Amino acid sequence: MFSKSDEKAHVVWLRITYQSNMGTETNINSVLTEMGVKIRFSYLDNTEPNGQGKYVLFTETQEEPQIDTINERLRGIEGVNDIESGISRNRMIHTVDFPLNFLGERAVITRSRTFLDILRIIRENVIQPDGLLLLSGLKGGIGAAKYVKGIMPVDRNNCMAILRELFLASGWGKLEMDFDRDTCSGKFRVRDSFIADAYGHSDLPVCGYMSGFIAGYMTEMMGYNFQVREVSCKSMGHAVCEHLVSPAPEGVNLEHIMKEEIQ
């Protein structure tokens, strides 16, 4: 996003690393307030390794020398390890740090329209496009589940709640579940699916990638193969996108669970 509050001011960014177990962020904020620094955007990250925290903020200054004064004061705070700063010549405010990391891997931010452009090209030029998209989602869901299992205790009791939060955190949509743990089958509903919202009208469901992701995630978490099929979609005029979830037939290879092969 871009700062529009004072077009004559310099948009300045600061990245401060500090010891998170010393209350250092409180002292940082006190110094910034004392110096009259008006924060336009900021975020804290106290999940860095070795007890380190990261404070990224964007502000505006009338003169470039003010940046050096701010840096000097901040470096004098006990617990501050390092400070990086610079000027955004194009007045751009970055809402995430670089390089962006998500689910343990390098990530990028892109508009949903870009994803949909790729999806449309696949649909128009590939044989069995829904199967390909489902398979791509399948691999993504398996990878996400493996990462989650590697960083926190996960079992059948909390894996569903984690999946719901992953959908929301990724901006994919709001996930609702009606799942029978005894039969391992049910319905997953996605409200405000980013795929369906950007795709526009369609005579067929368009969120096959999400179906695949859910299937891969469930398979990795539960320990046996799942199949997921979208049966209604917001792009078709429905209020929500609905995915049917059930165990895959015994003996079926996970990567062969495609819409064209299993109904």
UniProtKB/TrEMBL annotation:
4-vinyl reductase 4VR domain ranges (all copies): 185-247
Pfam families the record matches: V4R (PF02830)
SUPFAM superfamilies: Ligand-binding domain in the NO signalling and Golgi transport (SSF111126)
Cross-referenced InterPro entries: NO_sig/Golgi_transp_ligand-bd, V4R
Name of protein: V4R domain-containing protein
